Amino acid sequence: MDGILLLEQALNGLQYGLMLFLLAAGLTLVFGVMDMINLAHGSLYMVGAFLIATVTQVTGSYWLGLGGGILGAALFGAILEFTLLRRFYQRDHLSQVLGTFAILLMCNEGVRLIWGDQPVALSTPQSLSGPVQLLEGFSYSSFSLFIIGVGLLVALLMYLLITRTRLGMQVRAGAANREMAMAMGVNVSRLFTGIFALGAALCGVAGGMLGPMLAVQVGMGESILIVAFVVIVIGGIGSIRGAFLGALIVGVIDTAGRTFMPMVFSKLMSPEAAANAAPAVASILIYLLMATVLFFKPRGLFPPQG
Amino acid sequence: MIASFQRTLRTTLVAGAACAALAAYAQSSEPVRVGLLSTLSGPGAGLGVDIRDGFQLAMKLQGNKLGGRAAEVIVADDQASPDVGRQTADRLVKRDKVDFMTGIVFSNVMLAVGAPTFASHTFYISANAGPSQYAGEQCNPYFFSASYQNDNMHEAAGQVVQSKGFKRVALIAPNYPAGKDALTGFKRYYKGEVTSESLPTLNQLNFSVEIAQLRASKPDAVYIFLPGGMGINFIKQFVAAGLPKDITLFGPGFSGDEDVIRAVGESMLGMFNTSQWGHDMDNAANKKFVAAFEKEYGRLPTLYAAQGYDAAQLMDAAVRDSKGKLDDKAAVRMALEAAKFNSVRGNFKFNTNHFPIQDYYARVITKDAKGRITNRLLATPVLKNHADAYVGSCKMPG
Description:
heterodimer, A: mainly alpha, 2 strands, 76% helix, globular, B: Rossmann fold, Rossmann fold, six-stranded mixed β-sheet
């Protein structure tokens, strides 16, 4: 085990964590401020990625695609909130889960109708497709570095937005005590639409970053949504700081597990058994962490301060 | 009175005869039904689409007939899931009462679909998956592979890597039956050191962990069996990480075929891969197939398309040679075993376990005369008249 391997895996963990943060940030605000469980959050990510891929194909420019897709995702989120989701705020969590699950299925079928069953092509922009030499004997993908940069930038902007602006103050007040915030005259309906559009735009950013690395396809939102829920439970629901730190913890632990579990297991058992067991154990690590956090700190590691 | 009775009798007889004739006509004109169950969604969709397109092209060229009888192809998606595959196969076999099944891409789906299909005495003609289980102890009279046995292409690749003198090779294959067959096959012919074996889950798309491990273990070459979207993502990420200058990439035909080349582009140039077929193979059947495929779909065919095309040709020969009597299972089986069709890969015959004995070639990705980045077949086979390693343990019921 050498330094380069550790550095590379640390970068991989950071990159994965930052992408999880983009999804978890919107999810945790909607959950924390509106007390709304939104299973269709992953669909915003999927719709964003498909819009980016389409605009990129039409205009031939990834950057135009990225901009168009993020705007499109924000608009889609706002429309969804305005027409459907706001009717769920007063309902119990079970109705919200059922209602947003229905929206998730409709989004999947809608995307299938428009774009078809097969993955849609979205490539990294030409200028970012090559490697960058970071150290002697270690070059890292420039697009991955770009993803890390974008993730950090978004986190910084979110921090400024939440701590330095009036909107951020209302969001914090809403997350800490919703009834009191409403009583103090916060325009809840506009705030909620705004938060939802912001969360959707962040999903669009994540779609634009992960789409070229993974695949733009129907159902891409579900698997990552589950991990995003794990992140907000670990971080503390309603807290942006919690979502950020929780996402980094989950990203690093998941990457470390997938790297080092095979090494540990191959010392303990036959190579074939290790190859089967190690990925299985590595993939449950983050859920073990979530269970532990729930047991000792039910409100999460970094709950919103009230 | 009597006259009237006679007249009635005559009418009845005529009507009866007409009915019988109609029934006989209906029987012979009842179309041959084929269930084409393939992966048409998700990262493996490109493979299933090519099998389907190759199969449908052969049907079109045969006038939508199999062995002179009208034919109907029922296309269904298995979503690369053994559960969905098994349910859909049940429906095709029991409700649609298909005469042949074909199309499955992934061996885990194949192993789930096999049992109910064979139990209903429906012939399965594989256009891709060739799991070792069905080549050895679980070989079955109702299973025929018009493609290969899973190990074969990897055996040829092992031979190529060995003869090119590579001494330290890392292996990556998905954790499912064909992935394990791949590693077994490769190691049967490659005798050097294996620096690491990674078994990512099937349809994993982010290979950052595997790539970091490659950089750390410093092999001379890496052999990847990553079909469809997996291979596309791996090669893109491998190139983006700057590894190609230190580590030579090898794969079976699946990881270096036209679908992967279209998605990855220039950085595939120079990669060696192995297959039983190439689109530039010099025989009349292949020239006809490739030209018709390009005209119909506007792209070069992959080996999946070639296998789908051959599966349809094999069914055509079987219906023809069994004189269209598909209820006579023994006759259909004999006709299938004889395999009297012009395969696009040239040499083709069945072994006793219903898997092919055929040649395996190396292909290299270059720019062709038209400036397209594509595969060029190297004319001398790597493995000639090659049979699989499991045929010895197959006791095929007579």
